[in-house]
Structures
1.
Amino acid sequence: MGKLNGKVALVTGATKGIGKAIAELMAAEGATVALNGRDAVAGEMIVKNILGQGQKAVFLKADLSSPEANHNLIASVIENLGGLDILIPNAGVLGLGSVTDVSIETWRRTLDINLNSVFYLLRAAIPHLKADGKSGSVVVTGSIAAHKGFPNHAAYCASKGALEALVKQAAVDYAPEIRINMVNPGPTDTELYKNSAVAFSNPETVLDKVPDTLPMKRIANPGEIAKAVLFLASDDSSWTTGSVLTVDGGASAAG
Ligand SMILES: NC(=O)c1ccc[n+]([C@@H]2O[C@H](COP(=O)([O-])OP(=O)(O)OC[C@H]3O[C@@H](n4cnc5c(N)ncnc54)[C@H](O)[C@@H]3O)[C@@H](O)[C@H]2O)c1
């Protein structure tokens, strides 16, 4: 008996990295999973593998940088899967640059995907989560960058900080029907993480040095973040809302 049997889940940015791991774990736990992403080839391949294991999934292609795309995605989940129990806004971009260097276009795009998309998804999904008459659950992928200034990550840090405030605020308004929580990962082995190296003064060596700075002495694999998301998405966290679960190998504790 899976932890998510009979539930419908939507995971955005699910064609690679952390989102892919979340979608695969949720399907293995019995959910019918809608995987969103921009890369249809990668998305359909993941869905094929999930279906091949006797689990349930569909791929819904959408670029989430506009309000309409987010609203249409929720409508498509409701139409195709008959409802929504679990929403996982996970898609994210780095948008590198300092306040004076980052282009206005990059600033806007980073805020559009990392923050505004979550706002639009919540607006569109909340009436459906409530209408189901079940206790819906939202788990947002944040970052330890909500609490720490990383070099040349102005838009990224700002977007994740605001996202955490949004999660806490929305959790207050929509309890007790809907629980809204956040997982803040630390360094995790994905393309986004590797791409972040160029923001530092020593891009060739910075990533090699990260494990030694962490109490756990290694970075995470995406599956380890997915397990924390599963806890907050499932009934195991039935009294948890407005919480931020930091999953960072001790990075924040070490300062
Ligand atoms: N990897 C890390 O070290 C780390 C640490 C903290 C937080 N995070 C967060 O985890 C989440 C997932 O990141 P990841 O590391 O797996 O990165 P990734 O680059 O591997 O995956 C990001 C996903 O978001 C999708 N995406 C980006 N822009 C999109 C758009 N406009 N529309 C739809 N989908 C879009 C990508 O296609 C991809 O599927 C992000 O929110 C990121 O900020 C990652």
Note: The mean pLDDT is 96.
2.
Amino acid sequence: MDRSHFYALMEGDGKLDYEVYLNTSQILKAQKPMTDLCNKDELMFQIVHQIEELWMKLIGYTLLDIDDYIQETNTHRVISLFQRVHQTLTLMTSQLRLLESMSPKEYQEIRLQLGNGSGQESPGFRTLLKMPPFLWESYQKHYLDQKGLTVEKIYNSQYSHCEAYVVAEALTEFDEQFQAFRIHHLKLIYRTIGIGAKSLKGRSVELLQKGIQQRFFPELWDIRGAMTDAWGGEYGVKRDALGNKNNAAHDN
Ligand code: HEM
């Protein structure tokens, strides 16, 4: 097949209504020209990163809407939009696997093209890292404080599967999905450049472990541990106020 013929076909001429509306000319020219690619994997490497940036743009935009709806306590909207965010994060994580089809050697060749570039400079990622404190502030004010609720009440002492609980679980899911992306990204790094290797910035990728431990909404994780402690550390054993065993589920 004539490569240059098909390269031109892939880009289209950008004049049809569909191409104009979606700005396909710009999107399809946003990668290196095929003839300049350093190897056969570089196009995939660029496209995956670009798509991830677009997904993060969508997530950031959606989180702004979610924040507005949280302030209105419009729970139906909050939940619908969080479903979109969660689904997008799932896509982001699963797309990382595409990069595992690239050999370590091909990555090393591509890496030389990156200059000092690093994922830490991702505008989408940096934006998303800044948003959770604002979401939490809105949630706390409108779903908890104004209704006289606390995280402990909605999860434990006054548990009724109320709207504040459902929104808290959506926030938890967001936190978990974001961590999942970071964990899979680290696995990808191990697979591609090795465990304990120095990264482009000259620092060990183990530093990324710190990011994996980051929790956007610590209160929503701490309540689970606090409940486990309060309800009794031993599974199947119930104790009275003095700490004596009673009604032990597994006592014979
Ligand atoms: C084989 C593919 C990849 C490798 C080898 C890789 C490698 C790395 C390394 C070594 C770092 C540490 C910082 C540095 O020194 O640059 C990093 C950070 C980062 N990378 Fe990747 N990466 C890959 C793919 C991706 C993809 C597809 C994304 C899509 C968004 C991405 C986003 C990020 C982000 C956001 C950070 C900062 C993470 C944080 O601060 O927690 N990376 N990457």
Note: The longest helix spans residues 163-193.
3.
Amino acid sequence: MDMGDFSNPFDLFESLFEGMGGMGGMGGRASRNRAVDGQDEYYNIVLNFKEAVFGVEKEIEITRLESCGTCDGSGAKPGTKPSKCSTCGGQGQVVSSARTPLGVFQQVMTCSSCGGTGETFSPCNTCSGDGRVRRTKRISLKVPAGVDAGSRLRVRSEGNAGRRGGSPGDLFVIIEVMSDPVLKRDDTNILYTCKVSYIDAILGTTIKVPTVDGMVDLKIPAGTQPSTTLVMAKKGVPVLSKRNMRGDQLVRVQVEIPKRLSSEEKKLIEELADLSKGKTATSRR
Ligand SMILES: [Zn+2]
Ligand SMILES: [Zn+2]
């Protein structure tokens, strides 16, 4: 599958904390007319095992704050003009005095009437003066091959709109991956356990093994020991952002010993045992 160039506008975040700082405007001082950046938005997506391995294009529906079309993001009712805040006289700050046993303390505080902007206005009916409205949008998300549970995709500027000309936040898509009943993932490798009979392990055989590419023949060499791991090169997970690089599928061979033998089988095994003893005796000579 050709995933194309996903570096733009999607950046994959490997660091856990990167991008967590975009809490635009939270706790910030609302100084006069200061632009406030929009907050980042988060979205969880669940992929099946193969979608995470090979990548997928998904349409997702996100809800975030967008600039209000009625007031063009200003928050003021169209046709009205902002006026100087009467509480703070346009300063954006008020001084409050508190009398304590130690004397009178003065504290400078952000004006609560105008939120520190120094202006008041008739609020827009659509957004109640915020300048932003909550809207739902469908966006097409390109998930690159090789993502894993906990991977985060960053979609620039698709978060919440800013206020007073602030830039929009980013959208972070957090990936969860459903497990596969037989294939286990270990980073870029895929782990699988196969069972072969002791006879096949001794004589060698070819078995069919499930892989993310479908059923693939795997040669079990003669004399394979129990718990041997066979490597199916490049049948693993594509390496993120590195085209044509793939991990391996590691197949652990479980050798099955029969619990019951037919009388004929038992006779043959006993003959084999005698033969084996004879061999040992010969080699000791
Ligand atoms: Zn509005
Ligand atoms: Zn004010």
Note: The longest strand covers residues 56-67.
